[in-house]
Structures are given as structure tokens and as C-alpha cells.
Amino acid sequence: MIVAKTIEKQLERASWIRRMFEEGARLKRERGTENVFDFTLGNPDLDPPAPVVEALHEAALNDAPGIHGYMNNAGYSDVRDALADRLSKASGLAYTLNHILMTVGSSGAINTVLKAMLDPGDEVIVLAPYFPEYRFYIENHAGIVVEVETRRDFQPDIEAIEKAINPRTRAIILNSPNNPTGAVYSAGVLRDLDAMLARLPDAPVVISDEPYRAIVFDWVEVPETASLIRRCITATSWSKAWGISGERIGYLAISPRIAEADALRNACTFTNRILGYINAPAIWQRVVLRADGAAPEVSEYQRRRDRMCAILRRIGYEFDIPRGTFYVFPRTPIPDDLRFVRELVGEGILAVPGTGFGRAGYMRLALTAPCEVIERSEPGFARAFERCIAHPK
To answer: Looking at residue 390, what is its pLDDT?
Structure first.
């Protein structure tokens, strides 16, 4: 067999997000695009902010000698310096360019740091429900995934996390604003997590994955995780906020409060190279330098959230109102979320079962479809709900 056994096993449990996206492509061919309501993939459909487009045009037209050549594997110094300055102002910590590594998106950042930190058999805690690719990222580097349930409101359960920590625990991955729930972790719960970790003799680091930081609603403020958790490594990207998910640009920021920051920075610069990323795309680093403050169209995502939540509420679905991201994570009316998602497919509605995120009995709906599509989906959501309530088994 030419395919590795490890990959064969991973393919068997491959992301439900992609599976449902592929199901959507089939339905659109059979029924026509206008008869399919696709809420699967978190692929932003809004155009990038104007300053981003302008900066990209300028970067693409720059014909200075060597403009497309290699740079330091950590990225351009002026870009990293600018980001360090912004992070220092936001967190109150003394970041320098040596704490910043430009990466091929947030996914590249997480893989880079896990490669630098994990020996075979080391453990990484993820908080369920969680972005399913985390499992593959951890297993990429021979790590072991340890799932810890969040509280009913999807906030971290500090006591449960503490019970899961052992001498092999190397990291805890946080994701706030959270995919799939839309929850924003409170400053209080982050302080409690830091206090718990401070009591441990060899505490794991916290990897804070923050690609949705700029997409929040109702004037919610996202706490600066690095200012509240001492052993914090931040991973983020501009893919979601700028609507450029096909362009991979992000960074890794190692807190200056980590005693081993220099050693970890050196290791990550090395792993960024040997994983084959080499360096983050040169053009997009220059775009970041010029357009870093560009803001996403949050108001449009909030309109979509409000429409979807109003529809779900009228029908009788139970859910927590998401405070960020562009996802809603309602309970399915029956415990079997896989069956319910199949019922929705019969109505031309595509959702991702919560099982794919480590939380059965829920489903994720991505708000990356126009309000008109959301509104036309209401009868289908209602019919599937009523059928399953009438015949729960």
C-alpha cells in the first residue's frame, strides 16, 4: 500500500466540514445552486477591505531588485517590528521583533510551534467543541490529543483542564472567539486558567489561536490572552478578517514572559523552514505592513447572525447567541446530530454535525451566505425540525 497507515486512519475521520462541502457540490449539480442552502464552509464571501486591495496592488507592482527573494525565515524585520509594537501596546508586554514569526496562516503557525515543542507521545489539550483540524496538527508531530469538555456556556472548565494535565502535557490550545460556538472567553476565566497553571511546577504553554479576533458583535471586547496568561503563544492570521482565506498569511507571537522564549523562537524559525513553509509569502507580508489596521465588515456578519438566530428561535431550536466569528452552533432537536444533518440535506440545507467538532447533538451553521439565502432556508429548517420532533427515533 502506497498510502501510510496513519494517513489512512486520519482519512477515515477526515473533517466533516469538507465532507459536507463536497456534498453541497453534488447537490448543486443535481438541484441547481438556487435550491441549495450551504452553511458548511467558513469561507468569507465578503470582499477584502479597500486598504488591503490597495496595498496588494502596490506590493504587486513593486519592481525593486530582489523583492521576491528569500528573507530571514522568521519574516521581514520591519513587518515583525511593526507587529511587535502593536502587540506591546495592546498587551502591555515588551514584545520585540524577536518574539514574532511570520507564518503561512494560523494553521502554519500552530504546526510550526507544535513541531518545535512535541516529542512522540507528548499530549496537547483541546477544548471541546473544537476546530477538528487541531487533531491532525497535533498528530502531524506524533502528539496525543486530549479532549476536555467546556462548560454548558462553552467557556473553559478550569477544574476539568487541571485534571487532564500530567507530566506529558505540553500545551493547551485555546480558540477565542471560538469556532464552532462563537463564544468569547471571558477575562475572568483566562485569569483563573493562568492562576491554576501558575501552581504547577512545569506548566504547559497556552497556544491561543485567534483568527476571528476582529469579528465580534454587540460591542464585545476580546480579552488580550497574552496579558492574562503568562505562558502564552499567540497564533493568528488575516484570512477570516480580511476575507482572504485563499491567501495564507499570519504570525506566531511568543510571549516575552516565557523564560524559554529565545530558545523557542530559534526552534520555531527552524521548524518553519523544515516543514517546507520556508517563509511567509513576501507580498502578503508587505500588505500586512501597510494595511494591518484594515477592519472587516462586521456589521454584515452581525445582520446575518441576527437573521439566522431569529429564524432558529421562531422554529424552536435551542442555542447560545454567538458573540463572535461567523458561526451559529445550535442544538439539534434530536440527540443524533448525524441523522438530523441528513434530514436537512433532504431539504437542500447543508450544515456540519457537531460530532465533527467533538460535541454530538449540535450542528454548526456558517454565516458565509447572504441574508437572502438565510431567509429562504427557513421552511426547510422548520420541516426538518418538525419531522424529527414528531419521529425522534
So the answer is: 84
Please give the DSSP secondary-structure letter assigned to residue 366: E
Q: Which three cell numbers stand for residue 76?
A: 521581514
Nearest CA to 68 among 250, 282, 211? Answer: 282
Domain range holding 143? Answer: 52-291
DSSP string over 93-150 = S---GGGEEEESHHHHHHHHHHHHHPPTT-EEEEEES--THHHHHHHHTT-EEEEEE-
Q: How many Cβ atoms sit within 10 Å of the Cβ of residue 388?
A: 18
Q: How many domains does the chain have?
A: 2
Gap between the Cα atoms of 257 and 278, Å rounded:
27
Q: Which three cell numbers stand for residue 69?
A: 527573494
Contacts of 42 (CB under 8 A, 6+ apart): 17, 179, 240, 245, 325, 326, 327, 366, 368
Domain identity same for 315 and 274: no
Q: For residue 148, list its beta bridge partners.
A: 127
Specify the pLDDT at position 312: 98
Residue 236: closest CA among 105, 104, 127, 324: 105
CA–CA dist 106, 213 (Å, integer): 12
Tell whether 211 and 270 lie within a shared domain.
Answer: yes
How large is the average pLDDT for residues 146-159? Answer: 97
